């Protein structure tokens, strides 16, 4: 009986699904559009943008585990930001941008 229990326990561990790997991608910065993949189908997702202020959007992942959210704001030039997504089933993803690549000093006026 003990051997049967150990076999069943080992089988359950061996067939456990690997952890879900989610990711975010900034599609546009002006206005900010973020896409996410790797979430569970139908998972409720809260997406937060932090760039001196905090803006939040809520969405539901598609049957493929993907979503797109749009924020009604633009990221200022030369400013870093963090975008995080928190799924209702524990899925998480983050994008960190410390500085924009297009951050060149503006020419003096006058």
Q: Could you please describe the fold and organization of this structure?
A:
This protein has 110 residues and is mostly beta strands. It contains 1 helix and 7 strands; from the N terminus they run αβββββββ. It has one helix at 2-14, and strands at residues 23-29, 32-37, 44-50, 54-60, 67-70, 81-87, 92-97.
What are the key terms here?
110 residues, mainly beta, Immunoglobulin-like, four-stranded antiparallel sheet, three-stranded antiparallel sheet, 1 helix, 40% strand, elongated
Give the structure's gist in a few sentences:
With 110 residues, the chain is mainly β. It has one helix and seven strands, in the order αβββββββ.
CATH topology heading:
Immunoglobulin-like
Oligomer: single chain
Biggest sheet, spatial arrangement of strands: 4-3-6-7
Report the span from N to C terminus: 88 Å
Main beta-sheet annotation: 4 strands, antiparallel
Tell me the structural class. Answer: mainly beta
The number of distinct β-strands equals: 7
What is the assigned CATH homologous superfamily?
SOR catalytic domain
Q: What is the percentage of strand-forming residues?
A: 35-45%
Outline type: elongated
What is the strand and helix layout of this fold?
Blueprint: H1 2-14, E1 23-29, E2 32-37, E3 44-50, E4 54-60, E5 67-70, E6 81-87, E7 92-97
Antiparallel strand pairs: 1-2, 2-5, 3-4, 3-6, 6-7
């Amino acid at each position: 009986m003990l051997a049967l229990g150990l076999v069943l326990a080992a089988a359950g561990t061996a067939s456990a699904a690997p952890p879900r790997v989610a990711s975010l991608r900034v599609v546009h910065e002006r206005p900010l559009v973020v896409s996410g993949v790797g979430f569970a189908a139908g998972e409720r997702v809260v997406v937060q943008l932090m760039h001196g202020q905090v803006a939040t959007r809520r969405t539901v992942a598609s049957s493929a585990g993907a979503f797109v959210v749009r924020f009604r704001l633009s990221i200022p030039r030369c400013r870093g930001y963090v975008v995080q997504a928190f799924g209702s089933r524990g899925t998480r993803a983050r994008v960190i941008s410390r500085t924009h690549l297009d951050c060149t000093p503006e020419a003096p006026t006058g």
